[in-house]
Amino acid sequence: MDRVTFDKVVTDQLSRSELLLTSKGREYAEKAEADTAVDRLEHFKKAAVLQGETTEQATFGMLAKHLVSIADMVGARKAYPQETWDEKITDSINYLLILRAVVAEGRIA
After folding, report:
1. Alpha-carbon Rg of the chain, whole angstroms?
2. pLDDT category, 27, cuts 50, 70, 90?
3. pLDDT value at position 37?
């Protein structure tokens, strides 16, 4: 793959990840809006409490589900639609970004 094509794949993926993450505020935290103080990590913290884990552990568990799904796709050695790859890869990247936010919050607190 040439550099221009690779750069486009990366740019498109980062845009897809950003759009999905920034539009999911209501799903990740009730009443989350751009200009409110609602905790965007609220659901991850609640999941941690329910599972008796740290927020990092709970978030990683959610990421692991997506990584297993990708591993299954790779192992199946069959063609999947690009949309399926995009969904799984975007979700995995986004959970890594959420984990990054969880870790950053822990260092701030």
Report:
1. 16
2. low
3. 74
Copy the structure tokens of residue 104: 């950053």
Angle ∠(54,85,44) on CA atoms, nearest 5: 15
Report field, pTM of the whole predicted structure over 0.90: no
Residue type, 19: L
User: Got the DSSP string for 3-45?
Assistant: HHHHHHHHHHHHHHHHHHHHH-HHHHSTT--TTS---TTHHHH
Contact between 30 and 38 under an 8 Å Cβ cutoff? The reply is yes
Domain boundaries, the chain: 3-108
Residue showing tokens 């990683």: 60
Using the structure block, give the residue that is written with the tokens 């809006």: 33
C-alpha to C-alpha distances, 9 to 41, 53, 104, nearest whole angstrom? 28, 36, 28
Q: What element of type H or E holds 28?
A: helix 25-28
What pLDDT digit, counting tens, does each position of 93-102 carry? 999 999 999 9
The token pair that represents 101 in the structure block: 């936010």
